[in-house]
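anyone seen this seq b4? input:
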Amino acid sequence: MSAMNQLLRKATTIALLSCLAGCSNQSQDQFQGYVEGEFVYVASPLAGQLEILSVQRGQQVTTGQPLFALDETAEKAAREQIKAALVLSEAELARQEKLFRTGVAAPQDLDRARSTRDQDKKRLDQTDWSFDQKKQAAPQSGLVYDTLFRQGEWVAAGKPVVVLLPPQNIKVRVFIPETRVGAIHYGETTQVKVDGVKEPFVGKVSYISPKAEYTPPVIYSRETRAKLVFMVELIFDTKAAADLHPGQPVDVEFKSK
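predicted toks r here
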């Protein structure tokens, strides 16, 4: 009986090893990753009170769609003042040109009038630019991921008000062991599985990190090389990417070759 038991134990051990080997081969092609979003932060270069917030979190927007507007009272007053000054400087330039043609005005008087008119034009252009910058529209189509201010709040210059997430900026990041990264190539298609979604997403390798993300504080050896991982990024077509959410865990499967 002992001989029979030894044979059974050996057979069981071989079967377990075969099963583990099969599982190991399968796991070599599938890795855990997560969805990452590269956000677009929309801000005004000027400060002001948030007067209009045209969008809300979770809304889809298109390129050129208004997002928000800051108070323009100061810019409107400055523009009206400069417009009035421009009317006067243009009238003065016309008078000096007429006097110059009749020989009454000196050349320096004409140059001075022209310089004043030109300065007023530049000031008006600058004011118009400032006026336009108080309103911001969507630079790209995408999801309004977040709004960072409420109407009536003061917004500092350059402070983002709306956070956009264009679908083309959604990607998956997965970390591949050093022993497997050599078999993965730029442009290679992958299958990305998400919990609760029946069909996998088809992704494409868009970036392979040239250096390891984690280096153990020991001399490289055959054993420690397994601890080295390289970041690989995957991209998707815009329709598929819209159904992925930043922070979502995924399983990425690479096809063995």
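The longest helix spans residues 73-101. The chain has five helices and 14 strands. kinda curious what u guys think
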